[in-house]
Amino acid sequence: MPEVTGSSPVGSTIIVLLFLLPSWALGANLEATLGWQGVPVDGAVNPLYVRIANPNPDVLRGTLTISQRIGSLWRGWAERTLELALVLPPRRSSTYLLPWPLHPGEHTLHLSLRNQAGALAEAELSLTTPMEGLAGYIGPPPGDLPPQPSIPLAPSQLSSDPLLLSPFRDLYLGGFSLPPELRETLPAWKSFLREPSPRSFLEREVFAKALGEIPLTRRPLGIIAAGTLLYLGALYFAVGRLCREGNWRIYLVVSLIAMGGSLLGTAYIPGERAVEAWWEIRDVRAPAYSLYFVALATKEDVEWELPGFWIELLPTEESSWSGRDLTWVFAFGDKRSSLTIAPGRERILWTIAPRGKTPVEERFFVTLEGILTPDGRVLSRESFRRGLRRGLRPVVEKLLDYLSPGDAICLGYRREEGKAYVRHEFTVLLERTEN
Q1: Which one of 6, 265, 295, 342 has the minimum C-beta count within 10 Å?
Q2: For the chain, percent helix, then strand, then coil, each to nearest 5?
Q3: Contact of 366 with 408, CB cutoff 8 Å
Q4: What are the pLDDT digits (tens) for 44-58?
């Protein structure tokens, strides 16, 4: 659920009001600011502060829609949209803290507040030139601040969502005590987002290669063809009896059998399935959160929905961004990410979320000589990679470059199968000796 605070932070704010209400009502007010203290960071999940004021004597029930067109003439264009359902008491205002991933594209965010009667207010937020990273500090400025822009912070300003800390390359806490939720958030930022980290090591090509190792389930065409021929033969026999003898019973029996077979086939014979491949990266230093990646592929166009807030890893080829629209829907504590999967255009996304429950089964230690297995054997990295499950090999191979001798890597796997999809869940736990 988006965080609600009492006031908007200091920063560059733009307000545009459209009064599209009946004559007896006042228009709602919109204010928007992107980035920590108005400084956005490219390639990061930036905090988007949206303040909405309801000057009317009635409760405001509506949907806030935020959109941006990302891409270029060379990359192609795609749309990013966030929809927030909200209820605001009479003559009250609230500031909503929302995540917004910043990609190259148009330098404007479009905001619209609507209810069933129509538009209540609209605004456009012009984006300043994004930075490559920030340094944040609590208390007096440290003497060894890095060259990137530095921002003073108060403990109350830090978000409990690790994604919103992704704009920071460094955080200096100055020995201040932090609330309990931040004691879980900061280890997740340090383990998964502060470079060098698994997020920087694991690029899109790694997961595209891993997804290519997992075949799409094919439709059982042999069974379907045999059943069709059998049905046509029985139908030929039944229609002949009906014409010669007027015996409709055999025709009825064949029709009922065909109908029953069709229903069973619909229930138990899978169609062209979508494949969901999930990789959960855990770190013993961040016990509350995990870094997740998901790759989606299908053989036919299909609308798909993922629980939570996901950010897409976009390809680099010419025109490869075209049609890769992504919509985030926030509704009273529930977050969903909606997108379209098309044949030959896999979608790969990532997020940070609470740790899952899939158990890890095996522990392998990284040594100078190779990989130490649970039964005491030492394997070369190539032998170890070949013995891994398909869909896991490219990911573990890349993570081994991130680990040092003395570190351990633990692996787990779970498969879930439905009528319209197959889900592979890979779990990787990193045990690092470095603090």
Answers
A1: 6
A2: 20, 40, 40
A3: yes
A4: 999 999 999 999 999
